UniProtKB/TrEMBL annotation:
Gene Ontology biological process terms in this record: 2-deoxyribose 1-phosphate catabolic process; 5-phosphoribose 1-diphosphate biosynthetic process; metabolic compound salvage; nucleotide metabolic process
Positions of the Metalloenzyme domain: 4-380
EC class of the enzyme, as a word: isomerase
Entry keyword set: Cytoplasm, Isomerase, Manganese, Metal-binding
Binding residues annotated for Mn(2+) 1, in chain numbering: D12, D329, H330
Protein's recorded name: Phosphopentomutase
One GO location term (cellular component): cytosol
Major site of localization recorded for this protein: cytoplasm
Cofactor binding comment, as recorded: Binds 2 manganese ions.
Cofactor requirement: Mn(2+)
Amino acid sequence: MRYKRIFGIVLDSVGTGAATDASKFDDEGSDTLGHVGQAYEGNLKIPNLQRLGISNLRNAEILGVPKVKEPLGYFGKMQEKSVGKDSMDGHWEMMGLPVMQELSFFPKGFPAKLLNKISDFSGRKIIGNRPESGTKIIDELGDRQLETGELIIYTSGDSVLQIAAHEDVIPVDELYRICEYTRTLVNGPEYTVGRVIARPFIGKKSGHFTRTSHRHDFSLKPTGKTDLDYLQGHVKTYGIGKINDIFSGQGLDEVFHNESNLDGMEHVDYVMNQDFTGFCFVNLVDFDALYGHRRNPIGFGKELMNFDKRLGVVLENMRYDDLLIITADHGNDPGFKGTDHTRENVPLLVYSPSMEDSKSLGSRQTFADFGATVADNFEVSGTGVGKSFLSELK
C-alpha cells in the first residue's frame, strides 16, 4: 500500500540505549528512555507510545512500561552511521545524507582570530569561550552581559558555536545578524561548524535567567541533495520546529516555528486538517533543550507523558491512508554523566489505521531507512542511501 500523507515526528534526543559504537564517544551505558523510566520508579505513564511498541523494540522494557503482546503497528530501532551525534547529523541522515566528514570541534574554546572577527563585526567584546552547559554559563555570566552588552559565546561536545545575549540588551534581530555573519566564517575550509545557534534569554538577575523560544539555528547548508529535495515538486513538504533551520529551508514548501512541544503538536493538528499529498517532518526539541542537556530525568519524563497525551489526539485523527513514523535524532540521557548528547540507537515506531499486522522492523543499519521509505512511498528516486521498509508494512 502507498500512503497519501506521511507524518514523521522526531522526539529530539529520545534515545533507546547505547549504540554499538558508543565507546567511541565515551557513551557506553547511556540509555535515555531506560534511565527516565528508572527515575520514575515504574510510574512513567506513556500508554500511547506503549501501544505502539516503545518497549517492544528494546531488549529490556522501560520500567513501568511493559511490552505489549500486539502493538498497534510496526516497531524497531535505527543505528546512526554519521560521524557525529548532533541534531544536524541525525536529521540529514534521516533524509539520506549521512555526515561522513568530521566537522570542527572546539574542546578548548574558539581561536582568537575567529572571535576577533565576530567582535569587530558586532562592536562587542566576547566572554565565555569554552564548552559549557548553556544554562550554567548564562547563569554565571548573565549579570555581566546585562551590564556590559558583551556576547556570551560557548560550545559543547557537538560542532556548535552558540551566542547568548539578553533580549533587553541585544535585540533578537541584532543577535540574528551577528549569528548570520558568524555562519559565513565557519563554512570551511579552515573551520566547518555544524550549527551557529542564537540563544536569547530574559530575566533580571542570576538565578532567574530563562532562555526564550527565539532560539534560532543557523545550520551548515546541506552538502548535497536530501530526500526532501527529491520530494519537493512531486508532493507537498512541511517542516515543523527546527526542521527549517536544520535544512536551511531546502526542500520545504511550508514551515512552522515552534514555541514549545505543545505548540509543535498544535501545528501537527493544523497540517493534519489540510487536504494534501505529501510529507510533514516534525521536530520537538524540548526533550533535548529543556531536560536532556540539563540532566533532568523527571522533567524529561513529564514532557514524554505530555507528548503521549497529544499523541492520542494524532492517533484519533489519522486517516485510513495516513502513515505515522515516530523516531529520534540522537540520545541525551538525563541520567548520564556530562551535559552533551549521547550516542544511542533511536526508536522506530510506524503506524497507520490501515495496518492489518504488527511486527518488528529489527535494527536498521542507518537512519536513512526513514527517508528511503518516504521516497519509496511517493515513487521518487531519493538519494539512494538507506533501505526502504515500505514493503514490510502490511
